[in-house]
Each structure stands twice: as structure tokens, then as C-alpha cells.
Amino acid sequence: MDLNFTDSENAFRDECRSWLEANVPSGALPSGDTKEGFALHLQWEHELFDAGWAAVSWPKEYGGREATLFEWLIFEEEYYRVGAPSRVTQNGIFLLAPTLFEFGTDEQKDRILRPMARGDVTWGQAWSEPNAGSDLASLKSTARRVEGGWRLTGQKTWSTRAAFCDMAYGLFRTDPEQARHRGLTYFMFPLHAEGVTVRGVDRLDGDEGFAEIFLDDVFVPDAEILGEVHQGWKVAMATTSSERGLSLRSPGRFMATATRLIDLYHRFRDRSEPVLRDWVIQAWMDAQVYRWFTFQTVTRMGQGQEIGPDSSMNKVFWSEMDVRTHEIALAIIGNVLELDEGSPSAVDAGAWMKGFQFALAGPIYAGTNEIQRNIIAERVLGLPRK
């Protein structure tokens, strides 16, 4: 792996840095997991798309710049460095889109990708069910074949931002006679269709973006199947590899957080607690390790290698690093951390406590870290099952 950026990559960094510094909203937007904040974030997504920055690595025909994955990582570093708004289109752009490029038909890509990138059509993720979280293969939602398509019935939960989104994607059992990981099909479906009920789920921080989705004999045409019928597990694993291994949590996010942590330490450091200094240094080192590991992953992908089960190691590392980093921040702040984001005395407008609450979900979503460690043991280390 070459650790030096090329002249072209440095020029790309200068270009995106200049645009972002000139166009990022001057004040922080409300949380994208609230109705008001989601709408304001979508306005920002429109601006990104119109300037060609919404999906930089995509083909130009879908609104991208055909940037390399290295350039995409550079863009992400600059994006988080300037404190740009969180991407409320992430379920589509970073998770569904890579799967569409791999398994989608030309018709699906032409119909879905540009509206997705601009934020005109937003996507929720409908994986988990009340009794099928990390053990996704135990899902009970079904799809029944009818003339011209399928009828979906079941319940999905913990669907990120589904309370505000237009569409969702997930797995449904199309052949109950087959074994657990077989007989599943990957469907895309509208959240405003007849028979769909979306019910918000309250979060610890008061935001309302999570939702449960109830489907009662919802018709979905054949054109909304991604991949082959009964082969949905293979397609879903491509989505989860993107989620765990590369696109969902780019290193720029954690580098920016580590930089803010250093600034916080200098503002609030307690010299009677020298261990805090060591913790902050370790947090910065961890962010750098994750950065270089991600560049190594992209190098391997450029050589034609797949991420595969290595994505589980990646997911464990970044999710636990995120929790540790925010725990260090709260230790630095002390009792003031108890002030909510609406308090004028809250440190950094309460962002550290809000970030900590969200970080706690990291070891759970995208497959719990306990499950990821099983995958690492069996598929990376070759250890026997119990």
C-alpha cells in the first residue's frame, strides 16, 4: 500500500475542501432524526447533488464524479473535518446503492440511483424483526407469489429514519420449506403503500427517526426484487459487508471526532488526572489505525479482492472505538455532561452526550459484536464451532 497521495488526489482534496468550506451551513442543523431536522438535511443533500458531491464515486450518469474509492475517502475526511451535516441519505447511498451496482438490473439502477443520490427518494433499512435481530435468518416476514408480483406480510423494527423515508428494503421468506438461509428474497417496497403502517420508536435522546414497519398483504411488483428469487441472503450479505466494512463508517468521521476530543481536552483538562492525557492520545491513535486499515481495504478491493468476513473485524473495531472515544470525552467534561442539548451551559451544545448515546448502539446494529466475533473466529481464524 502506497501511503503517499498522488498529485491528482491532492488536487481533488483541494477542490472538495474549497467547495465544502464555502457551502457548508454556518450553524449546526437540528438532528436528522427529527422531522424538522430531516427536512433541513434533505435541502443540504440537494445542494450536494447539484454540485456533484452527493455520491462522488458513482458513474456520472447517476450523478457521481467517477472518483476512485481513495478519492471518496479523501472527500469523507474533508466532509467531517468541516463539520458538515450528517448524511440522512446514508441508508440508500452507502448501503443499498453498492448492492444495486452489484445485483441490480439496468432498469433498477436507472430508476433508483439519481433520485436516491439527490434525496428525492429516501430509504429506510428493514432488516430486524422483533424475534430476528442479529439472527436475521430466523425472520418470519413472508412474501407470497401473486399475479404480477408478491404480497408482503410481517413486521420490521429498528428501521433507521423509516419514520420519514419514502422506501425501504429488506428480506422476506418466499419459500418456507427451505433451510433458514435459503428461500429468502430481497425486496424494495414503498412505505406509503396500502397495507403499510409505520410507527415511530422513541430513542433515549428523544429523537424520533427509528420506526417499526407493519406490512399487511402489501403488493410489490417483480421489478422491486433485487437479485434472484430465493437468493436474498447472498444479496443481503453484500449490503452488510458494505455496512460493516467500508462505506457506512468512513475513517473521516472518527478522525474528526478524535480531533474534537483533543480540543476538548485542552479546554477542560484536569492536571490532577494525568491518565486522561493517555486516553486521549490512544483515541487519536485508534482513529489513525482505523484510517490506514481502511486505506488497506480499498487497496485490496482495487486488486480485485473482496472484503468478506474481514468486515466483521472492522465493525468490532470502529464500534467499540466510538464508545471509548465518547466515554473519554464525558470523563473530561465531568458533571456538566448531564446538561441536555437545550441548556445554554451544555458543552458543545450537548453533542458529546448525544454522540455517546448513539455510539452505544454501534456494537448492536449491523450485527451485534458478539455475532461478529463468532464470524471472526470461524471464518477468519478457522476455529471450530462449539
Explain how this protein is built.
It is a single chain. By secondary structure, the protein is an alpha+beta fold. The protein folds into 3 domains: 7-118, Orthogonal Bundle (Butyryl-Coa Dehydrogenase, subunit A, domain 1); 123-232, Butyryl-CoA Dehydrogenase, subunit A, domain 2, CATH 2.40.110.10; 249-380, Butyryl-CoA Dehydrogenase, subunit A, domain 3 (Up-down Bundle). It is built from 11 helices and 7 strands. The strands form 2 sheets. Strands 2-3-7-6 form a 4-stranded antiparallel beta sheet, with no helix packed on it. The protein has a 3-stranded mixed beta sheet with strand order 1-4-5. The longest helix is centred in the C-terminal third of the chain and has 28 residues, at 275-302. The two termini are 37 Å apart.
Portion in strands: 5-15%
Measured between the Cα atoms of the first and last residue, the distance is: 37 Å
Largest sheet: number of strands, sense, barrel closure: 4 strands, antiparallel
DSSP, total strands: 7
Q: Going across the biggest sheet, name each strand in turn.
A: 2-3-7-6
Mean pLDDT figure: 90
Instruction: Report the total helices.
Output: 11
Query: Measured on Cα atoms, how large is the radius of gyration?
Result: 21 Å
Shape: globular
Total domains = 3
Structural class: alpha+beta
Q: Spans of 5+ residues with little confidence (pLDDT < 50)? A: none
Order of helices and strands: HHHHHEEEEEEEHHHHHH
CATH class of the largest domain, named Mainly Alpha
Tell me which CATH architecture of the largest domain applies here: Up-down Bundle
